[in-house]
Design brief:
Layout: E1 12-16, E2 19-23, E3 25-40, H1 41-45, E4 53-55, E5 57-59, E6 62-75, E7 80-91, H2 99-107, E8 109-116, H3 122-132, E9 140-145, E10 149-156, E11 159-167, E12 177-185, E13 188-204, E14 210-214, H4 219-224, E15 235-246, E16 250-251
Parallel strand pairs: 8-12
Antiparallel strand pairs: 1-2, 3-6, 3-15, 4-7, 5-6, 6-7, 7-8, 9-10, 10-11, 11-14, 12-13, 13-15, 13-16
Length: 255
């Protein structure tokens, strides 16, 4: 991969609690899959931590929940896996059902509140918690890559949280995508930018392209079972090869 996405980006080195790091963080070789489902806006709203967060709806009463699995094979903080459960949201500015989601898709610029973000290494966990206020915890995140399907299991302390499974779609070069992720640290809302270069990418609205199976004996899966998730995905994205940059968190007032 040519690393075009990293050109022109200045990194700063720092040392924190005896660990050396760089910001922004570069991820050089990754695989990701993401399935977006609809859910009850009224029920998911109760999980938002700040009144200025507004759930993005596919249509009135149905918001969008993204389940995203990441395999970071080479990064500035070594290899690790990550699983994001996020609620597509705006901050401050109310959304328009259907319109906001469509505009963000066309603009390739998405905004979301990260509700859960388990990872497989301690350096990834502590950095995300202390520097970004992200809800990270250590879990087992295992990929199973087949010719027809790619699956990812999320398990904590032997208890299954969920399994996501998506079709191994034919891919092509994608266009750069920006994600703005919201978090809360010390009751202060923060925002961090993620830029992704999808070297190999596919996207589909085929409801049969992905499946989600929830566990039955974990607090996260128990909560997810109560929010009215759709049986089939609203959208599925598959990227066996991509590169991305995670920028430092900043206060929401600092736009």
């Amino acid at each position: 991969m040519n690393g075009e996405v990293f050109k022109g980006i200045k990194q700063w080195e720092f040392e924190w609690q005896g660990t050396k790091g760089k910001l922004p963080v570069f991820y050089y070789d990754n695989t990701s899959l993401s399935a977006i489902f609809t859910a009850s806006t009224a029920k998911v709203k109760k999980l938002l931590p700040h009144p200025d967060m507004h759930l993005i709806e596919a249509f009135p009463g149905k918001c969008l929940v993204a389940f995203s699995a990441f395999e970071y094979r080479q990064s500035d903080i070594d290899p690790y896996n990550e699983f994001s459960i996020s609620f597509l949201s705006t901050f401050g500015k109310p959304q328009i059902p259907g319109v906001t989601a469509a505009w963000q898709t066309i603009a390739r610029s998405f905004t979301a509140y990260v509700w859960q973000l388990p990872v497989t290494t301690e350096i990834a966990r502590i950095g995300g918690v202390e520097l970004y206020g992200l809800p990270k915890f250590i879990a087992d995140i295992n990929f199973d890559k087949g010719q027809k399907w790619t699956a990812c299991d999320l398990i904590e302390n032997g208890k299954k949280i969920l399994t996501i499974k998506g079709k191994t779609l034919p891919t092509r070069r994608g266009k750069t995508v920006r994600y703005r992720i919201y978090s809360i640290k010390d009751q202060v809302p923060l925002e961090a930018n993620v830029i992704t270069d999808p070297v190999e990418f596919a996207q589909t609205t085929d409801g049969k392209a992905a499946e989600l199976e929830l566990g039955t004996d974990h607090p996260v899966s128990e909560t997810l079972s109560t929010i009215g998730l759709s049986k089939r995905p609203f959208m599925f994205q598959f990227s066996p090869r991509n590169q991305c940059i995670l920028f430092g968190a900043r206060n929401m007032i600092d736009h």
